Amino acid sequence: MPQRKTTAETLPPATPQPALPSPPPPRPRGSVISVLDLSVPEVASILALATLLEHEAPLVRMHRLLKRRVALLFYESSTRTRTSFELAAKSLGADTALISSQSSSIEKGESLKDTGITLKALGAECIILRHPSPGAPYPLEQATGLPILNGGDGTHEHPSQALLDLRTMLAHLGSGQTEVSETTLQGVTIAIVGDILHSRVARSNALLLPRLGAQVIFCGPPALLPDVAAQIGPGISIERDFERALAASQVVMMLRIQVERLAGMHIDLEDYKGRYQANAERMNKYAAQALLLHPGPIIRGLELTSEVADGPQSLIAEQVRHGVAIRMALVARALDQSTGSAVETRAGKSARKTARKTRPA
Ligand code: CP
Questions:
Q1: 185-206 pLDDT per residue, tens
Q2: How far does CA 203 lie from the centroid of its chain?
Q3: How far is CA 111 from the centre of its chain?
Q4: Total domains, the chain
Q5: Which of 40, 101, 185, 317 meets the CB 3.0–4.6 Å disulfide criterion with 212?
Q6: Integer Cα distance of 80 and 297 in angstroms
Q7: Boundaries of domain holding 108
Q8: What is the SS3 assignment for 192?
């Protein structure tokens, strides 16, 4: 019997294989869309850079990003995030341009992608984006190739807020602002209270703080805090009883009910206040030593009383101050990393040398 040939001639024709999807392009360095973009050492280095920049002489600091271009693209209203990013970029010497959805070609229907491409063509080297849609920064990053700093995207994330919250806590917990590791917040419990369902701040904090050793308690009624919220990540638990949450916590972060995102959901505000309002009586009885945080804007008389907002435990104004330092670090990092240069720019070094030479003895 003739032997069967086993050469390529006898093999059945190869079935055409579907082309493999090409891998996504590498993300621009310096983008911060989620706190998960940052390793713990990167968080530590952002905090350290924030402190360095905060203490630097303004005339020296302004040479770091002199005439570099930063665009602030805001599709939602903002006071704290917008102003502090703008002041941060300006105090590093950058030129800023604010584009808001109400007074730009966005009103005429220009897409996020085309707006981003336009800003890049105008010389923007980094875009700070606030947008009502969760995940909106990702296509903007892909379309422009620029580092994107997420200034809050719908109910998804608000990473710079979580970093400034962390800096505020560390300033009061005796840990030192820059000594951040996986154990820095060991033994610290943070209660995040209120409208967790719609809160990008709650998500970013809950994804960041347990990585530094903290326990996070989410507290609120089921309508604003579904059980599934505990599955966001490790180190998170749910407590429906506000007073028990207060008694267990060293830090209490109150949240506003986001009426603009309730979409037909009805909340009995009187009942809510009765159960979840931070008032002086509750704070004194259950959490007299706790730090009181709130990302703002606050609604006095709803999630907290004026007495608590203005009281000795409140760090609300301090959070805002920390926001400028954190955002300086994020903008400096985004622009340095987008060009691959070191954070210590040549311009900064030379300005420092001149300042030393001209300083009176
Ligand atoms: N915390 C915060 O994001 O506030 P703004 O909406 O005022 O920016």
A1: 999 999 999 999 999 999 999 9
A2: 10
A3: 24
A4: 2
A5: 185
A6: 8
A7: 35-158+322-341
A8: strand
